Amino acid sequence: MIMPAIGARGVPHMTRVLAVIAMTIVIGPNVPQATVPTTLAGMLAAMAIEVIVGVLIGGVVSFVFGALSLANEMASNQIGHGAAQLFDPMLKVSHGPFAAMATLLAAAVFVGTNLHLVLLINVADSLHAVPPGSVLSPIGGGGVWIQVGGDVIRAGLTMAGPVLAAVFLVHCFVAVLTRMAPQMNIFFSLGMVLTVIGGSWLLMVILPYQLEAHYGMVARSIERVPEVLNQMDLMPR
Fold first, then answer.
1. Per residue in 147-160, pLDDT tens?
2. Domain limits, the chain
3. E-strand spans in 82-163?
4. Helix crossing, 192-223 with 115-129: angle to 10°?
5. Is 54 helix (H, G, I), strand (E, B) or coil?
6. Which of 16, 174, 189, 227 is at 20 to 30 A from 143, Cα to Cα?
7. Are the C-beta atoms of residues 144 and 60 closer than 8 Å to each other?
């Protein structure tokens, strides 16, 4: 439900429900027998734990999608696109046009390279690695999110680095010209033009490399799904 692309705003809810039903029909007969609680409260608690486990698995991958958005949001604000806000159906937030475009392209790469199928395979395998009803506390799996959060911030700064460095150099150049000719309003007449044109051109040049780096991050985050499961407290077998 929260997987990238599938969980985007605009995807019909019925499509997600039918996808879950289809997965249940295919995977359900082979899943180990669940330990069913004998009370209504116990059953509701077990269902809630299974939902949290699913959110932790899918959220690790969805969280990584914020890296590309963070990078292009910082770059867009620096080159003067902060006022042009667009709604991003992937992350369900409003940010700059370059960030929205990059997130949509990342979703297309995610689906086009069949990473969504790899994630679904990992979800199916998790039902065998951690059978339903065997999780005592899923909180330990959230520790992986802390590591992923650090990776997202570091990757966002790295991918936005060339644009931030270019804007800094342009500002330094304009500052020197302004110091040499203080009577001329160089910042608004020259600085803004250089920043917008140069920054936009550089963003378009590095966008394919950003998508490639982002693809590698998403692929590695899917490989960390077993790590999320291993951090959870399980019932003794």
1. 888 888 888 888 88
2. 13-154+210-234
3. 86-88, 93-95, 135-137
4. 40
5. helix
6. 16
7. yes
Classify each residue of 199-225 as buried b or exposed e, where b means 16 or more C-beta atoms within 10 Å of its C-beta.
bbebbeebbeebbebbbebbeebbebb
The DSSP output letter for 17 is H
Report the predicted TM-score, pTM, of the whole model to 2 decimal places.
0.71
Report which of 71, 89, 112 is spatially closest to residue 214, judged by C-alpha positions.
71
Task: Summarize pLDDT for 75-122 with one digit per residue, the tens.
Answer: 877 777 666 666 666 666 666 677 777 788 888 888 888 888 888 888
What is d(CA 19, CA 107) in angstroms, rounded to the nearest whole number? 18
Gap between the Cα atoms of 139 and 146, Å rounded: 12
Q: Are 31 and 128 in contact (CB under 8 A)?
A: yes
Q: Among residues 153, 163, 154, which one has the least CA distance to residue 203? A: 163
| Nearest to 67, CA basis, from 220, 176, 201, 170 | 220
End-to-end CA distance of the chain: 30
Residue 48 has, within 13 A of its CA and on its CB side, a CA count of 9
